UniProtKB/TrEMBL annotation:
Pfam families: Acetyltransf_3. The lineage of its organism: Bacteria, Bacillati, Actinomycetota, Actinomycetes, Streptosporangiales. The keyword Ion transport does not apply. One of its GO terms (cellular component) is cytoplasm. Gene3D superfamilies: 3.40.630.30. It comes from Actinomadura darangshiensis. GO terms for molecular function: protein N-terminal-serine acetyltransferase activity; protein-N-terminal-alanine acetyltransferase activity. SUPFAM superfamilies: Acyl-CoA N-acyltransferases (Nat). It comes from the Bacteria. Residues 18-189 form the N-acetyltransferase domain. This is N-acetyltransferase. Keywords: Transferase.
Length: 215
């Protein structure tokens, strides 16, 4: 079976309301449709890489190609886990966890997006909590990083709720204008103090070497 050769296909995270996993081809198509329908106010740009500033068909195709690319380029020293988020069986968005030189640094970073009609329901907090549990409880990470433009108040609120602390500011150019990025950092101690959302992990053991982690 394919999962025997690429065990990440068997990795699943579940919370009280959500399931996170690599998508099937049909679920990847649904994820592309969600992205094409819009993930933010068109008057703003919350992403350092403006991947949504394209026609809907190109946005959808880009989501598919990005998933194929991250799977193909995966190594234990440089990986990106793009998990599709399902709420009540419906594809609603994506939660990413990244690691570079994880075996040495024990550090991860995250990113995410949700379809606009699924926002404002606490899903963003729950899906971030899921990958933080994977990082700290599953992979034995020491710290997790995140960042958001200062205009992205919802993302910053999720970080604060989960225990992240400010970790510097950086300037970027978005749509030809300056914008400020607020970096955030979550230590293992702060994660243990703040975690309240139960998370279950399935299928992790065969994946550990792919993450550069050990049991």
């Amino acid at each position: 079976m394919l999962v025997d050769h690429f065990p990440l296909l068997g990795l699943r995270l579940t919370t009280p309301r959500l399931e996170l996993r690599l998508p099937s081809p049909e679920e990847l198509a649904a994820l592309a449709d969600v992205a094409a329908d819009g993930v933010h106010d068109p008057d703003t740009m919350p992403f350092a890489v403006p991947w949504t500033d394209r026609p809907p068909a190109e946005v959808a195709r880009g989501v598919v190609q990005h998933h194929w690319m991250t799977r193909a380029q995966w190594t234990p020293d440089d990986w990106e886990l793009d998990l599709t988020v399902l709420h009540g069986g419906e594809v609603v968005g994506q939660q990413t966890l990244r690691g570079r030189d994880f075996a040495v640094l024990r550090q991860v970073s995250s990113g995410s997006w949700l379809g606009r009609r699924h926002q404002g329901k606490g899903i963003g907090t729950e899906m971030r909590a899921a990958v933080l549990h994977l990082a700290f409880a599953g992979l034995n990470a020491d710290e997790a990083l995140s960042s958001a433009f200062t205009e992205s108040r919802a993302s910053q609120a999720v970080s604060r709720k989960l225990g992240y602390q400010p970790n510097g500011v950086y300037r970027h150019v978005a749509r030809g204008a300056m914008t400020v990025e607020q970096a955030m950092r979550l230590t293992r101690t702060d994660w243990e103090r703040q975690r309240t959302i139960p998370v279950a992990i399935e299928g992790l053991a065969p994946c550990l070497l792919m993450f550069g982690a050990t049991e």
